[in-house]
């Protein structure tokens, strides 16, 4: 049994016993096949929608080219654009697909905890280290390590990471034995690392090590051709998940979605659709997308964002919460001033204290349109 037999029979056995046993084995096997077929279909569903748009053509090509190699990849893009999904896809298509995929979020832990998480420690390395613990780099051996939010890593840890990338060796905290690992590293950031390098907060040598290949995922507002596909896919997915009747999105919903700027990118779209499915109504979402931010202005829209952030509490670092809230506040303010100046952009720029050029860029980024 330990070597993989599904069942056994004690001799002597009846014909019926044999039949019953075989039936169970065959049914199990059929179920397993059915299950993997379903999983494949599910994945297929995600994949056809995932990145089918024009703006993602470059990203798709790079994923294909690099998946079979071992190069380090830096995936960048705003929050919610799908950086983690891309990392998983690269792993899935690599020869390491059946090996571990280990994710570490560099923003989630304070420096010393992150260090012991990555490199592990020996018993007695510090107070509280009652037994040895292997680091994530060891766990990821022969597989892929995904370092999320790499821009949040402190300079001392950056140095240690650089060493691992160069020599493929490190030692656990409080230990001196060199541990050799074979790990492919992928990382993601929503900050501009070039700028951090220029400011001296991110090591230049590490930056070049990580950035062997760079995959930039455009924000959803630059991929509007994908929006309707996403709407359908998420409607389908969450209707099944929450046991609700399947239905098509109304043209009004799709239109409203296609015009909206999505500061929270695909994740925001996904959450809105979840709401449509759970409430079994599009009304509040459509109203929010169209009227909500336009007619009622900053306060309501901001409140909705805060509610949504509260609903996902703990999933986002506080910094990210602040970034999104500030983005929303900016958008709502610009919208209001533009209405007040009747879309006189020069006057609005003056009132807002930004250059004309900056305002035009922001109008575009926020997806604001003259009513
Ligand atoms: N192309 C896509 N197809 C299907 N789902 C997607 C796609 N892109 C993003 N998503 C979904 O959007 C959500 C956010 O994606 P993901 O976590 O990969 O983003 P991220 O860029 O890592 O965001 P963050 O910077 O906030 O961590 C996830 O629920 C993911 O499944
Ligand atoms: Mg992520």
Question: Residue share in helices?
Answer: 40-55%
Described by the principal axes of the CA atoms, the overall outline is globular
The structural class is alpha/beta
Gross CATH architecture of the largest domain? 3-Layer(aba) Sandwich
Mean pLDDT, all residues: 87
Percent of residues in beta strands: 5-15%
- The first-to-last residue Cα distance is 70 Å
Low-pLDDT residue intervals, each spanning 5 or more residues? none
Q: What ligand species are in this complex?
A: adenosine-5'-triphosphate, magnesium ion
Distinct helical segment count = 16
**Order of helices and strands, N to C?**
HHEHEHEEHEHEEEHHEHHHHHHHH
**How many whole angstroms does the radius of gyration measure?**
25 Å
CATH topology tier name of the largest domain: Rossmann fold
Would you write up a description of this structure?
Helix 10 (251-259) runs parallel beside helix 12 (283-295). The chain has helices at residues 15-49, 57-66, 83-92, 111-119, 136-139, 155-167, 193-199, 204-210, 227-241, 251-259, 265-279, 283-295, 298-311, 318-340, 345-352, 356-366; strands spanning 73-76, 101-105, 120-121, 133-134, 144-148, 169-170, 179-180, 184-189, 213-216. Helices cover 55% and strands 9% of the residues. The protein folds into two domains: 54-218, P-loop containing nucleotide triphosphate hydrolases (Rossmann fold, 3-Layer(aba) Sandwich), CATH 3.40.50.300; 221-366, Helicase, Ruva Protein, domain 3, CATH 1.10.8. The strands form three sheets. It has a five-stranded parallel sheet with strand order 2-5-8-1-9. It is built from 16 helices and nine strands. It is of the alpha/beta class. The protein is globular and about 90 Å long.
